[in-house]
Each structure stands twice: as C-alpha cells, then as structure tokens.
Amino acid sequence: MKILCEREKLREALAVTTSVIPSKSTRPAVENVSMIATGDALELIGTDLDVAIRYRIEDVKTDEPGSVLVPARVAADFVRDLPAANGATVTMRTHGDNFIIESGEDSCELSTIDPDEYPDVASFDEADSVPVMAATFTRLVSRTGFAAAREAGRYAMHGILTQCENDELKLVATDGRRLAIASAALEADGVGPLQAIVPPKGMHLFCKVLDDPTERVRLQFGDSQFCLKTSKAEVFARLIDGEFPRYDAVVPASTENRMDADTATLTQKLKLVANVTSPDTRAVRMSLDKGQLTIFGRSLSTGEATAHMNVEFEGSPGMISFNPDYLLDGLKNCEGDTVCLEFNDKASPGKFTLGENYVYVVMPITVDI
Amino acid sequence: MSNPETRHPTRIAELSERVRNQIAAGEVVERPASVVKELVENALDAGASHVQVDLEEGGIRLVRVVDDGEGMGEGDLALAFTPHATSKLRDTEDLEHIASLGFRGEALASIGAVSAASILSRPRDAPTGHRIEDLWGAVGEVREAGGPKGTTVEVKDLFARLPARRRFLKRPSTELARCLDILQRLVVAHVGVGFTVTHGGKRVLDVEASMDRRERVRRLFGADLADALQPVDAEDGGTRLTGLLAPPRFGRSDTTRQMWFLNGRPLRDRVLLRALKEGYRGLSVENRQPVAFLELSMDPSRVDVNVSPTKSDVRFHEGRRMFGFLVSSIRAALAEADLATPGETMLRGLERRGAWSAPEQGVRQPYLPNPGARRIDSARPGGDELRVEEVRGAPFVPENLAPIIADGEPVTWERSDDLSGPYLRVDRTYILRALPDGFEIIDQHALHERVTFEEWKAQLAAGRIEIQRLLVPEIVELARSEVEALAEHMDGLGEIGVLLESFGRNSVALHGVPALLRHLDPPGLVRDLVHLASSHGKPPTAADLLGEVLHSMSCRSSFMAGDELSDADIEALLVRAREVGGAKTCPHGRPTRVRFTGMDLEKAFHRR
Lengths: 369, 608
What we know:
The complex is a heterodimer.
Chain A lengths: L1 E5 H14 L11 E7 L2 E7 L3 E7 L3 E4 L1 E6 H9 L8 E7 L2 E6 L2 E6 L18 E4 H11 L15 E6 L2 E7 L3 E8 L8 E5 L1 H10 L6 E6 L3 E5 L3 E6 L18 E6 H12 L9 E6 L2 E7 L5 E7 L1 E3 L3 E5 L1 H9 L5 E6 L6 E6 L2 E5 L2 E3 L2
Antiparallel strand pairs in A: 1-5, 1-7, 2-3, 2-6, 3-4, 4-17, 7-8, 8-9, 10-15, 11-12, 11-14, 12-13, 13-26, 15-16, 16-17, 18-22, 18-24, 19-20, 19-23, 20-21, 24-25, 25-26
Helix pairs in contact in A: 1-2, 3-4, 5-6
Chain B lengths: L16 H12 L3 H14 L4 E7 L5 E6 L6 H7 L26 H7 L2 E7 L6 E7 L2 E2 L3 E3 L4 E7 L6 H4 L5 H18 L4 E6 L2 E6 L5 H9 L1 H6 L1 E7 L2 E7 L12 E5 L2 E3 L2 H10 L12 E6 L5 E2 L10 E2 L2 H18 L4 E2 H11 L20 E4 L9 E4 L19 H7 L6 E4 L3 E6 L2 E6 H18 L4 E12 L2 H8 L2 H6 L3 E4 L4 E8 L7 H14 L6 H15 L10 H14 L12 E5 H7 L4
Parallel strand pairs in B: 1-8, 12-14, 17-26
Antiparallel strand pairs in B: 1-2, 2-7, 3-4, 3-7, 4-5, 4-6, 8-9, 10-11, 11-14, 12-13, 15-16, 18-19, 20-21, 21-22, 22-26, 23-25, 24-25
Helix pairs in contact in B: 1-4, 2-6, 6-7, 9-10, 13-17, 13-18, 14-16, 16-17
C-alpha cells in the first residue's frame, strides 16, 4: 500500500479513531488502527469491541491500494506532532512488514501486524435508516445522557433508550432516581416503531463525529448495534441488552401543585444552599407557600442555610426535598427562562419541565424526623 | 466416706475438718496458678513493695512467694492455716466495702490441705521471725526461726497425695504458662510493686517497682505494643476508668492480653469483657480479641465481689449505666488513637519475604534527625503523658529504645495538613500521599466504606436518615422463605432507610434506599439483607441487624478497588474522613491507611 494524503485530514481522522482504540486490550490487534486504501479514499477503522468507527478520508492519492494494521497511538501522535513547515501532505507506505510515514524530511517506521487478526467491523446499511439533523441528535443526547446510571443499578439503565415512534425521535435515560425524556419531531413520516438501548460511550462517540450541526445524518437500528452515518464516518455501538424500566408510568399525569420559577434564580439559590449540604446530607428542602419558595439545606457536620425567592405557585402549601445535584444537573440543560415543577406530595416524583418536549423527573428524598 | 466406727443405721456423718478443707480447697485451689494468685494477693495485701515468686516444674513441685510486707507475728501465724481465719474481715458489714484482695480466709487453709506448705514470717519491727507448717492438713506448731523481714510462703508438691486431683494437672510447661498469665495480670495491676519471677532458678520476669503501667506492658509484651497504647481516663459518678488500649491491629485470637482490674484486683468479669468487645466493635476484625489493660476504681460498696471464690466475677450495682459508661469511654479513647498500621509493621512483613533486611546490630550509625525534629520520650517514670522535646541538630543515639518519632505528636501536623495532593495511584486501589515527614498509603475502598459508614451512623443517631425514593420499585425475586425472613425485619430496615415491601410470595419491592448510598446496586443490597436476616440463628436484635446491615451496605455503595478516582475525589474523601474522625479501619476492621514515618524510612534505608 502506498498513499499520499492531506496532513490535516489525516491528523483529524487519527485523533477521532484513536479515541476509540484502547491502549491495552486482551486482544492486541485491537490496539491498532486498521487502514484501508482504496481508489481515492483512505478508511481508518478503530474499535474497542463495544463501539467501532470507520472514518473516511476522501481525495487521497492512492498509488498502491492495500490494508495495514498500525499501532494506533504512535501513529496518531507522530502525525499530530509533524511540523507545519514539512508541508501539507503525508505519504504512507508499507515496506515489507513495516509501515513508513513520511512528511518533508521526517519519517517514522512502525512495525505492523497481520490485518487478518483484526475483528470484523460492520458496514452501514442505508436501507431502513432514519434521517435526522445532527444538531437535533446531539441536543437530545445532551438533554438526557447525564441521567443514565453509571456505577450501579439495573444493567439496562446504563444506556440511553432511543426510540422512533409516532414520527418522533425520543431519548430516555434514568438511573432509578431521576429520569430525563427529550424528544424531537422526525422529518420522515411513518418510521418505526424502532428502539435501542445505546451505551453512553457510543453516544459520546456519535456526538464527537457530528461536527456540522446542519448535516443530515442517518441512524440505523440494528439487531445488535445502533449505527450512525455522517458524510465522513460510520459509528457503531453495541446495544445494551435488557429491559428498560417502564418510564411512562413514572411521569405523573396530573399533579396538584405547580411552581413556575425563574431558571437562573432557582439555579443560583440551589447552588447557594447546596454549599452547606455535604456528602452526609444530600437533601435540600423546598417549601412552597403563596408565591414564595424557601430552600433549606442542613448538614450534620457543617450547618444549615436558607434561601428565598419569588415564584408562581398553584396548589396547597407544602414541601418536597431533593438531592440538589440532581436538580442542578437538569437545570444546566434547561433552555427556557422559567422552569416548571409539578408534584403531588413529598414522597411522589417531582416533574420538571425544562423545555419544549423535555421532561425531567426526580424522585424526592424523604427525611424521617 | 463413712466412719467405720459407727454401726449399721447411721450413714451420714460430719466430715472431719481435714477432709472438709481438702474438698473446699478444690474451689479455691485448682492448679499452681491459683496458688500463685492467692499467695501473691496475700503478699500485696500485706503491703509488699517487692514480691519474688519462685516456681519449680510449673509450680507443681514448688511455689514460693517472698514478700517484704508487714509480716505476721507468732499469734497470727498460729491461725494462718485455720479456715475462715482472716485479718481482712471482721463481720458481715465489712463485706460491704472490701478493699483488700483476699478476704474469705479460705486460701491458706485450702492450700495447706492439699500440699506441704510452710510460712516463715518476720514483722518489720520484730528481731526474729517464726515458722509454721501445714503438711496435707496437719498444722504444726509455731517455731521461732530466722528470716528476712516480710513473709515467705512455700507450697510444695501440690496434690501429690491426692492422685485424683493431680491427674488434672497439665504438663509443667502448660502450668507455668498459666502461672505467668496470672502473674502478668498482677504485674500490670499493681503499679508501684516490683516483681521477680523465676522458674527452675531462671529469671523469667523482672519488673521494678518504679515502672509505670506502660513500662510494665513494654517489659512483658514488647515495645511495639507498649508504644502504640492509647491512654484512657474517664470518670462517671464516682467510677473512674483508667488504663491503656491497644489499637485494633494488635488483636489476638485469645484474651490473655485483656486485663481488667477492679480496685487493683484482676478479674475476668463477663460484663467487662463484653464492654470491651462492644467498645472495639467495628474497629476490630471479627474473631480478634482486643488488647487492653484497664482499671476501674470505685467505692467498694458499689460492687459485690463476693460472687465466687475465685473472685473473677463481680456484680455491679448499676450495671447498665456502668456498661454504657465503659463502652463510650473506650470508643472515645480509640477515636483518639492512631489506628493506621505503622510502616514498621509492613517493613517487618517485607523482611519476612526477604525484600528488605533490618540493619544489623552494631553497624548502627549515629543518626542526625532533621533540625526541628522532635523526640517523644515515654520512658519518663511515673507518667503516661508523652513528653515532646525539640532536638536540634545534635546527633543522638536512642537510649533505652525509647521511640523516636521524628514528627512528634501526629496531631500537630495533622491540623495544618490540607490533605491536598499530589496523589500517586497504585493499581487503582491504593493512593500514596506525602506527609510532612513520611508518607501514607490509603486503601480507597476501605476508607470510603468507613467514611460512608460513619456518616450514616451519624445520620441515624441524629434520627435523620434521608431516604432516596426510587422511580420504579426494584422488584427482587427471592425464595419464599427468604421473603418471610425479610418480612420480620422490614420495619427495622425502614428505620435505617431501606423501604421494602413484600411483593407477592416470591419477591420484594424496594421503594427507597438511604440517600447516602449513591452507587447502590439494589438487587445486591436485597440479597445481602436476606443473607443477614437468615444467617442469624436466633432473631437478631435491632442493634445487631443495624450494625451488620450498615457494614454490608456501606461496603456495597463504596468506591471499589479498581475505580479510578480523580484528585478532587480523593481530596474530598480525605476531608470527609477527617470530619468523621474514627475512620482508621474499614467496617470490617481492615486498616484504611498505612503510614510510613520518617523513622520507618530511615530504618528501611539502614540509616539507623
């Protein structure tokens, strides 16, 4: 194999691909990046067996097609550090069992391994794929991803439920204590129903390749993988197997109490009070009465704090306690100037409306005194 | 047993005094160790300032106790071997406030009945002494005899004429060990009295009268233990608890180094042993007996010591209050103790593996401590307080193996320590952090577990357990019997923040968990609870269950070995650990951190 390509494009491609590749793996071949040179393109493939990426560089000059497995990190670092003075192009070629990267007067020679040892990475199948705007997809991911379970919890909760139903793309994530649901209209009609539970790692990689918000990308709901295709890259994520909690039952359909508060002020006051809550006391208490919200936090070791703010409140005076971190996570993503909290009583879920088609449900903390 | 002179009908006869004494002796005198105990206690009651104990063949052949106490005159000696003859008690009222060690008047008579015993005594102001013998119950005449001031009691050939009892004696080495156990307790109990013990002419124990309690422990059990002991001194309405507590890492499989003294009397009262265990609960690994040397001082009228002849059990008038006082005092003292495993212990482990060798004796170089390094001298007679003095520049060689801690009291720098990094992570499990002088290794899982546990206990104590409700109840399938076992404890579990509900016959629903448990795996938690509920043979008390559930739950919710922690995570954890105090072992009793001091490093590099 022998090709000539643009240094900047290659650097970018290697950086994205290498971010997937593990530095240590039980399968050493996976520590390499697979490069395949064809007609006028160079394809880079990286995987950690859970997620995989095919990244395409167009407009390369292929003197000799072929494929090679090169140590990913060294190759990426070498290309990254090439001085600009060396010119805008890089030549890569195989020489026996070695792989040579040259630019200007500088070069490096890397050892390679047999390309057959590389695991199979699927190709994107355009049939039945769903078109969506890149910006829409990244927005839904950032609105929900934070709520997915991390260390513990039911296995299925470690992923983000991605659904196509009723001409809507809907993403749902929960860790059993809070739940984020965000949806957006699909451009195409009559899609689905389709669904997949996608691990956050895959979602992050998807967002990483979506660098043009206006690009129309395609989603593929496979049996074992969820895939996304942009003009440059195809990304695959292995699905999480399992049953996602039945989240629709959790969102309260009707509530007795409703508070509308200024988002920025509420965020500020919550942060203020959360300063005294410590890991031994996670709760802040929100007391509501006649247009007034009182936020109170106390820690056994530190002390206590109280903050007041004006809100619109309909319902009977009462209180409900939450983990302030959970509320702040949600408020960070709130797009509107006001945020709405609806709840029935102090032991029932609190429903925050953080924007259009964006609901965040947080379970309260009850303190027995 | 029948009297041959009586004729047919009479079968019951009064026993001769001699036989009576031989039987009664069984209660007081079981083995040489009991002889040693009785005789030494007598010597102490006589105001001895030095007691010498000579043993032969584990005390079976000979127990000789020589004291320099008041001594006894001719008249006293004549009554010495008479049962219930005592100088320590006159009437029943005196029983109300017994301050002496012995009082029942049984000991000498019993001993005389089962051995060849003799007493040689000379009062302090008398020109000559007297001697009396009791050979197997036959008390001889008092004869004038020369001797040193004080009393010498010899007991020879214990049980030699009573084969049935002799058979129960063990090998001399075992009997010797028992004698020494008793003697060690007496030595630690009676600060101010010197002891010399020989066996077969060889000196096995030697303690000077001037040594304080810590010094005595050092002489008996080594400097490691003595230097690590944490003093305790607490008072509650006329009851005073003083003594020394060993950090949990010194725990043993036996209780030989658990010593309780009541007004100077060693005893093995069950309530006291339980108080000790309770005080160490959660700090000591299971099945490890804590090591402690504790003295209770109280008005003799508030305790009944006349419960059993061996005086090992006593009865406190306000037992419940006493128990609470003891447990809380012990816990408070332990919270002050430096429970981190010292680097020195680890060095020794390395030595055993051959990865390190101790500096050879004789090549010890005078070493120059850092300017401003401080030295702690605990060898100062008559005081448990550590003296800290500045040592400036000048080289010095440790005298008397007194501990040299280049850093003085840990407290001084711990206050100024901001717990900041840099941290070195090892194997995603251990964190190394530099200290002002030395470094420490932290087990992230153990420390986090402990911190969670302590915070949770604090919430519980404050009655403010925060419960995080779950969005969707976690349904956990179990065997029917397991559901039933759990059902009994659901109320109790609710109190500690676990909201469980039966959900059909074969499953339970988890509605809420303690808010502290952030990384909780609900099915795992429920399975742990089932295990705890069913592993108790008898219904566990709420307190038992609580303790165990807290342990296992804080373990479940903790950072695990293998979790990668950021610098901020680590610092936050260390700050929390400092806030909760006592976080020096994990709830399972493993240490949470190991500290290498400058001295350990100097040892490791053979600078000392």
